[in-house]
Amino acid sequence: MLFAMCPSTPANPDRAYWKPAEETLARPTLEALQLDRLKRTVARVGESVPFYRKKFEQAKVSPDDLRTLDDLRRLPFTTGADLRESYPTGMLAVPLDEALRLHTSSGTTGKPKALFFSRQDVDNAAELIARSFVATGMTKRDIFQNMMTYGLFTGALVAHYGAEKVGCLVIPAGPGNSERQLLLMQDFHTTSIHLTPSFALYFADILEKRGINPRKDLSLKRAFVGAEPYTEETRRKIEEGLGLRVFNSYGLSEMNGPGVAFECQEQSGMHLWEDHYIMEIIDPESGETLPPGECGELVLTTLVREAMPILRYRTRDITAIVDAPCACGRTHRRIQRITGRADDMLIVRGVNIYPQQIERILMSIPKLGRNYLIVLEGLDEMTVKVELSETGFDGQLDHVVALQHEIAGLLRAEILTKPHVELVPPGTLPISEGKAKRVIDNRKL
Amino acid sequence: MSTVRLLAVFVENKPGQSARITKLLAEARINIRWVTIANSGLFGVMKFLVADPDRARDVLKQEGVMASFLEVIPVEVADQPGALQAVVECLAKNNINLDNTSGFVANQHAVVLIETQDTERAKALLIQQGLRVLSGEELLGV
After folding, report:
1. CA atoms within 13 A of residue A275's CA, in its CB half-sphere
2. A420-424 β-sheet, strand order
3. Run of H or E including A381
4. pTM value?
């Protein structure tokens, strides 16, 4: 270990670190640590995982080729399909009896991905959660109600272990059953909750219907919200409805689950824990590495995982690296809120566009409703159909025309191509439950 | 001073959309006293003068039609050359912009319907000028 391991207890919990030495490593030291850990990981998988041995042979690379962090680009990617094909134990880098826990990542199609944790992996995952929770101001005096699903899904268990590390009282409530959630919150004065954005919005609705004012009647301070992408507007809605601060959490089962990247008190981008992961942003089409600030697919390499190291994993999540230093003092760089999935990407007139970019613009305009549809036709003609909100029409035709132009302008600035904007009355577009079908691609290219 | 409200309906510019609105109003036995339809590309606005705009809006809303109200100033002018000129000049002199304006002549009454951002001031100026600003009942009685 290059650094001391002593939990900090500064007077002001808002500025607390879990392991200050690890979180504030000077960049050159952090990068040297990354390279050292990367070399070990690559050497180990080259030796013990047939999948990687074969990949290295095919790509004509050897672990000895790694001299700098940039050399990582020469290594092959690992995809979700690779993990599925090596199900159940094909990617295991240790004997099965060294594995302590199995989680799976549910695939909507075909086999799941099996993820193994060694004892050290379980502990490391909990360490990163502790680091993340403390970065939001949590201390051992907090009461943590874990409203995520316990089971094969990583979300709840990993967070549970991390919160225990911090020393909080942990209430393993699991999801659903709003009445019982509320009872627990009232009786045990829950201060911190962990849940999905959709459950948070639903729960806020329940409170309102029950006439409960969370600021007066509950003790909630913060929510860790993740496992589904959501917008800034949703964050504000949850903060308003539950009377707390929302901290954005990023993780994926393939990388231990939650705690891969987390917001600090600044609530401005998520620190990705670079002593445990190397992040890259690539163009999802070409695979070329993109510089910080540019939006692309997040690619992650585990640096300390024992049971199942994964190199250059294509997360399919779209984000950008925030290179600027953070006011909190942590030196681990941040990623922006996830803006989409690479699988959703559209290419229109040669420009990569994610439906979520369009959604974000539309949702920021109060005169518009929540329902929209993107239609692609002919040779790259894009039409964005969007419903006006109930109060979006004041009787003036020219105001509607001006709104239409405003939307087209805002979209053009965001996606670099000017779509046709079609405003329709509320209730005109097909209503979709759950995962809405937002894109209709009828192009004849 | 009572204001006169028009019903403004947002419609998609597709065949049959206007007919759908007028059918709903007819079925509710709502008499249309005046109408304009303006289109801009993919959508348009239909404006109606009806005796009870609130009821008309409820009827449409129940069928998922988006409608709103617009305030207008109905001014009765002499049915002779220069009458509109007097109205327009009065407002122009006082720096009031006309938005949508239309007029009609019925039963020897000439009426101009004026939409402007500055309804109250425009109304006061027109009355000051000696022009006759109609109430809702008066307008419907023309």
Report:
1. 24
2. A420-424, A381-388, A368-378, A439-443
3. strand A381-388
4. 0.73
DSSP for A84-139, please give it. HHTTTTTT--S-GGGEEEEEEE--SSSS-EEEEEEHHHHHHHHHHHHHHHHHTT--
Two tokens at A120? 């050290």
Residue B45 is nearest to which of A397, A427, A428, comparing CB atoms? A397
Three-state DSSP class for A200? Answer: helix
Sort out which chain A residues have CB atoms less than 8 A from B4's CB and list them: none
Rg (CA), chain B: 16
- Cα angle A404, A405, A410; round to 5: 100
Whether residue A88 has a cis bond before it, omega within 30° of 0: yes
The pLDDT score that the predictor gives to residue A188 is 98
Who among A422, A423, A427 is closest to B64 (CB)?
Answer: A427
Structural tokens at position A422: 């079609």
Sheet with A222-225: list strands edge to edge: A169-171, A143-146, A192-195, A222-225, A245-252, A257-263, A270-272, A334-335, A321-322
For residue A289, the 8-state DSSP code is B
Number of Cβ atoms within 10 Å of the Cβ of A211: 7
DSSP 3-state assignment of B133? strand
Which of A1, A249, A263, A267 lies closest to A124, judged by CA?
Answer: A1
> Do B125 and B90 touch, CB atoms closer than 8 A?
yes
- Tell me how far apart the alpha carbons of residues A123 and A112 are, in angstroms, rounded to a whole number: 24
The residues with which A381 forms a beta bridge, in sequence order, are A377
ipTM for this prediction: 0.85
Name A241's Cβ contacts closer than 8 Å, sequence gap at least 6. A200, A201, A203, A204, A205, A207, A208, A214
Interface test with B, best of A367, A385, A397 (most B CBs within 10 A): A397
Chain B residues with a Cβ under 8 Å from any Cβ in chain A: 6, 8, 10-12, 38, 40, 42-45, 47, 64-70, 99-100
Cα–Cα dist A88/A78, whole Å: 16
pLDDT of residue A6: 44
Structure tokens at A186: 């009232």
For the stretch A120-161, pLDDT in tens is 999 999 999 999 999 999 999 999 999 999 999 899 999 999
Structural contact between residues A105 and A115, judged by C-beta atoms closer than 8 angstroms: yes
Label residue A261 left, alpha or beta by phi (over 0 means left) and psi (-120 to 50 means alpha).
Answer: beta
